[in-house]
Specification:
Helix content is 47%, strand content 9%. The protein is of the alpha/beta class. The strands form 2 sheets. It has an 8-stranded mixed sheet, with helices on both faces. Strands 9-10 form a two-stranded antiparallel ribbon. β7 (250-254), α11 (262-276) and β8 form a beta-alpha-beta unit. α9 (207-217) runs parallel beside α10 (234-242).
């Protein structure tokens, strides 16, 4: 019996190494997906240098500081909208924001788009909630990790306003510089997954407020789902409320679609629409991209041609955002200028009404309280619509001005007619010139394919002193 056992062990020693090697070979042979469509669609193989937009961005920065910011600061617009534009934001690259429930493949999708899998640059991924920080992927000459407190302290970056969310949040903010060609043209932001059974205050920072900050500055927003996480809870519902008005920038992604058979995929697709229908208030249904965004090949017997076409469509959207960087930036600054102008006109109207209603025996606080509580009684908003070219759809919420004037006394503001100087002109005329002439001219020069470096004050009017209508001639 002992001899038989020894013989069996000897035979096993001869067979097992080869069998073990064969098993290892099978485990290593995971079919990987071809990446040529990514490089082709995003033009990563082209050797042309990165476009130099410094001339246009410098011109845009000058328009903002000379024509928009004076009125913005004078009427404290930032305290109404909580949106301060920095030089870093004006010169920043397009931002792509990834949102969605936990473990739906947001980090894996970023690794796949950048080709970071199995490299020291890759983001950590897993079946459990793995991303607890807001991770900003930027371009750099070498791999480098930047702490959130350093990013907020650097005024050259566009993240300095994040300091207002507190030190607890800055500890959850991290920047990673990666030497990748795509990151020369765009910045990716990975976010913590939404966990419905966790109270927001347990995060230690205002999660929804931070998300709103990134949403306001994102050029493209990917909201990612997978077939196992289609339910909508309170935190996801709040997130979609914050996305209202940004529908054109949202791309909804149903990830891991190759895990499902055809019939089940149709059911999941319908269930996703059913869940999102109450949250997206638009007349047209949102576009949902169905694919599987990771480096491994599609599962056999799945709709690989469909998934590939969906993926290419999404990449084309991303490339379009990159190509339209300057147009989007100029349009954003112009939209901001319109909002600042409307805010200044409203504050001016509140102030003028207050002065008209004040008498020698009036109590200033009671008079202004009556105006703020019922502005329609004094035709505040109707007067703005009647006397200026302002759309009623652009008017801010009346309730917002109760809080605004609760912090800022009406006596701390001046009338627009008093915001003029002999050398600098009038604040209102300068911002109107920027809205109607300078910014459209700058945008038109890009649309016509002109050389941005050839822009000068003869074409844009940047050298003209705004006419002061209050100056005696």
């Amino acid at each position: 019996m002992r001899a038989l056992v020894l013989l069996c062990c000897f035979v096993a020693s001869l067979l097992l190494p080869g069998q073990t090697e064969e098993v290892e070979d099978v485990s290593e042979e995971v079919p990987m997906r071809d990446r040529s469509h990514i490089e082709k669609t995003l033009m990563l193989n082209e050797d042309k240098p990165v476009d130099d937009y410094s001339v246009v961005l410098q011109r845009l920065r000058k328009i903002y500081h000379s024509s928009i910011k004076p009125l913005e600061q004078s009427y404290k617009y930032n305290e109404l909208r909580q949106h301060e534009i920095t030089d870093g934001e004006i010169t920043s690259k397009p931002m792509v924001l990834f949102l969605g429930p936990w473990s739906v493949g947001k980090s894996t999708m970023i690794n796949y788009l950048l080709g970071l899998e199995n490299t020291r640059y890759q983001l950590y991924t897993g079946a459990e909630p793995t991303t607890s920080e807001f991770t900003v992927l930027m371009h750099g000459p070498k791999l480098k990790t930047i702490e959130g407190i350093v990013m907020a302290a650097d005024s050259a970056r566009s993240f300095s306003p994040l300091e207002k969310f507190g030190q607890n949040f800055l500890e959850k903010l991290i920047g990673i510089e990666v030497p990748h060609k795509l990151l020369e043209r765009v910045t990716f932001v990975d976010t913590p997954g939404i966990i419905e059974n966790r109270k927001q205050q347990e995060r230690g920072y205002p999660f929804n407020d931070v998300c709103q900050w990134f949403i306001d500055r994102a050029d493209l927003i990917f909201v990612v789902f997978d077939p196992t996480k289609l339910d909508v809870g309170l935190e996801l519902e709040m997130l979609f409320r914050q996305l209202k008005g940004r529908e054109s920038q949202i791309r909804i992604i149903l990830n891991k679609a190759d895990n499902l058979a055809t019939q089940m995929l149709m059911r999941v697709y319908g269930a996703l629409f059913w869940s999102l229908a109450p949250l997206i208030n638009v007349t047209e249904p949102p576009r949902v991209y169905v694919s599987s965004f990771w480096p491994q090949d599609y599962k056999p017997d799945t709709h690989r041609d469909l998934f590939l076409k969906e993926e290419i469509s999404l990449l084309e959207d991303l490339n379009q955002v990159i190509e339209n960087r300057l147009e989007n930036k100029i349009a954003f600054i112009r939209q901001h200028a319109i909002r600042v102008r409307i805010h200044a006109l409203l504050v001016d109207r509140y102030l003028q009404t207050y002065k008209d209603k004040m008498t020698f025996f009036s109590d200033g606080e009671l008079v202004f309280k009556d105006i703020v509580e019922d502005p329609d009684k004094f035709y505040i908003f109707k007067t703005i619509l009647a006397k200026t070219n302002v759309s009623k759809f652009d008017l801010p919420n009346r309730e917002a001005y109760k809080d605004f004037f609760g912090i800022n006394p009406i006596s701390s503001f001046k009338l627009l007619s008093q915001q003029c100087s002999y050398m600098g002109g009038c604040f209102l005329e300068k911002i109107e010139r920027a809205i109607t002439q300078e910014l459209p001219s700058l945008l038109g020069s890009l649309g016509l394919g002109k050389n941005p470096s050839a822009l000068n004050c003869d074409k844009t009017g940047c050298g003209e002193t705004p006419k002061n209508r209050y100056k005696k001639h």
